[in-house]
Amino acid sequence: MSARVVLEVDGISKKFARGFFGARRSALRDIWREIAVWNTSPRDRLHAAEFWALHEVSFALREGDALGIIGANGAGKSTLLKVLSRLLKPDTGSVRISGRVGTLIELGAGFNPVLSGRENVFAQGALYGFGVRQMAQRLEAIVDFADIGEGIDKPVQHYSSGMRARLGFAVAVHVDPQLLLVDEVLAVGDLAFQNKCMRHMREFRERGGTLVFVGHAGHQVQAACDRAIVLERGECRFDGDVVDALDYYFRQQQSGDAIPVTAGGSGAALLQMAAGNAQGVTMGDVVVRGAAGAPSSGAPADIIAPYTAERAHPRALLFCAFYSIDGQRALAGAALEIPGGLVAGAASVHARLPRLPFNEGSYQLRLALIDMELGYPVALKGWMDQSVRVTVDGDASVVSNFGRIIDMPVMLPVEIGRDDAEPR
Amino acid sequence: MTAPSTRRESAGEEVSVFDASPALRHPRQFLADVRRDLRVTMDLAPQMARRQIVARYRRSVLGYLWLLLVPVSTAAAWLFVRASGALQMTSSGAPYPLYIVAGLFLWQGFLRALNAPLQQVNASRAVISKIRSPWEAVIAAGWVETVFEFAIFVLVLLLAIPLLGEWPGLGMLSAVVPIVALLLLGAALGLLLVPLGLLFDDIPRAVVVGSTFLFFVTPIVYRPPSSALGTVTFRLNPVAVLLDAARSALVGDAPVAPALVLPWALVALLAFVVGWVAMRVAVPHLVARL
């Protein structure tokens, strides 16, 4: 690439202190260090109650680049953005920026509710360091972009949150930044506005602008950026293609969760039925596997449920339910009559899913053996005890990321055809 | 957006580099940044102040009239006291009601200049923790407002002088230096309080207690004491020295310690510069805790 480097971040770290008193102490220490210029000892040591909100993060962006910053709450995304926008001073490392920086950390943060939208445009401009004349030149474009019509002359306190966001975005992008820092501000505002902002950011990049985009909403990051870094507890854990970064992030998120032992509300009725109905049936360790070991998305999968029964239950049903990994939501399931029912002694039930409909990720599986003559479960697995964890493999793809972004774990096996042809 | 430690490269492209090292370690850069932000401040502070005043009175029926009502009511109260003869103090110098009104007005100016920085920063907390904006301009806007309101006080005072006492003539122009020094002193103290005031909630409370104390130990509503102890404390109290000099010029009295006006004015200037620098270097560390 021959484009000019616009932003160069070299090993920046920022420490914060936990707790109110710790934060104050470290603030005093930091301010003292500003005054004690003779003190040249490095700041890479943590004091008591301090932690790295950002640690040794480095990257460089060229003209037209767009970098997404992904991470869970508290991973350091906003801190990074605040360091880049010079609100915070890094504790180590350096940042080099060529050109003006536009920051969108909170849309319309500084609006004065009593003043009209028009007056607030000038007031916001002043905060960005723009004088009256400079803002007057931009006023028309801003009002045009915000598209709030007559509202521009009404007091901002009568604005809806969407109008407020539109005006805030409009002002921030019209102060001619070369580098635009956006912190998940697009969550407010309607879909039309969000699309407009995304379009604007695309055009901004096409004109050579550089974008840093923080987002919880994965689809926006995927749409706005081609590269992303994943932050985890202040450290950069992944830096690369945005699709792979999101894939990495989702994978990390799921593996990090412990499986809750207690069943969600939807299991309560079943549990009540089973309570006090000990029928001498217990289930062993249930295995879910695919052709080559771990089950994978869209491929056949087998559920093998061993059990021991004191007596035979000639008419029995295997009930299986896949839950989200947090155990809160039943996603899909099946109930199948077991040929021959349950036999006395040790045996196992073998069920086969010809095409596992789950997207890549982890799920909980809960099972029940139901005696059809009694009409209630005789053995439970995963409802009151540890459930079966099922980790489904899959290839990272835009489609599977979309599934995860909208939190849609099940893909229906659909066949598609053209209008002029019958679906096979 | 303003950017300290910003330099221009040959191509005319703005390049800013920032790292962990203290800003004061690069004095030349620091001064260049101060100059740059000062220019921005001069441009922005008046329009910010105007907008603040507009916003403050927009929802009131009497509007800007309120700006006038505070000093007018004070002056009117003392006109009443004078007319009713309730307060008969026999001493040399200007009539006591005029003496008090002038003292109160000057004290108000000082107090507002002192409170403005912390008030301004607190009022714009939400913004300055999210948009990198010149704090100087935000704070200076408070002072512009202070000066504007103080000018109204002085105007009311000038109108009240013939009613409460005698017109002192052109000699009142010598009030300008002590007045400027008094406001500068308040501004300097206010600036010095910003970093600590944002970290310790004790500071705003201490300011309330401290200013009440200062109000009573400073000869504002009474004549400067003539005892040995009183004379020493008077001279060591810059507010007393500057306020007395300003008031004496306005009401046609003889100032108690005119020789101390310039030294204390210089101290105020110095404190102002120190406060300014302290605020600048502290800001990025304060933002993290806002």
How would you characterize the overall build of this protein?
The complex is a heterodimer of chains A (424) and B (290). Chain A is of the alpha+beta class and 424 residues long. Chain A has ten helices and 18 strands. In chain A, the strands form four sheets. In chain A, strands 5-6-7-3-8-9 form a six-stranded mixed β-sheet, sandwiched between helices. In chain A, strands 13, 14, 16, 17 and 18 form a five-stranded antiparallel β-sheet that branches. In chain A, strands 10, 11, 12 and 15 form a four-stranded antiparallel β-sheet that branches. Chain B is mainly alpha-helical. Chains A and B meet through helix 1, strand 4, strand 5 and helix 3 of A and strand 2, helix 1, helix 4 and helix 10 of B. Strand 4 (92-98) of chain A pairs antiparallel with strand 2 (14-19) of chain B, so a sheet runs across the interface.
Report a brief summary of the structure.
With 424 residues, chain A is of the alpha+beta class.
Structural descriptors:
heterodimer, A: 424 residues, alpha+beta, 6-stranded mixed beta sheet, 5-stranded antiparallel beta sheet, 10 helices, 18 strands, 27% helix, elongated, B: 290 residues, mainly alpha, two-stranded antiparallel sheet, 2 strands, 70% helix, disordered N terminus
Helix content of chain B: over 70%
Radius of gyration of chain B: 21 Å
Query: Which sequence of SSEs, written as H and E, runs from N to C of chain A?
Result: EHEEHEEHHHEHEHEEHHEEEEEEEEEH
Overall structural class of chain A, as computed from helix and strand content, comes to alpha+beta
The gyration radius over C-alpha positions of chain A equals 28 Å
Give me the oligomer status.
heterodimer
Q: Shape of chain A, please?
A: elongated
The tally of strands of chain A reads 18
Order of helices and strands of chain B: EEHHHHHHHHHH
Strand content of chain B: under 5%
Biggest sheet architecture of chain A: 6 strands, mixed
Q: Count of helices of chain A?
A: 10
Derived from helix and strand composition plus strand pairing, the structural class of chain B reads mainly alpha
How does the major sheet of chain B shape up? 2 strands, antiparallel
Number of beta strands of chain B:
2
Summarize model confidence as the mean pLDDT of chain A. Answer: 83
- Mean of residue pLDDT of chain B? 87
Structure annotation, total helices of chain B? 10
Strand order of the largest sheet of chain B: 1-2
Stretches of chain A where pLDDT falls below 50 for ≥5 residues?
258-266
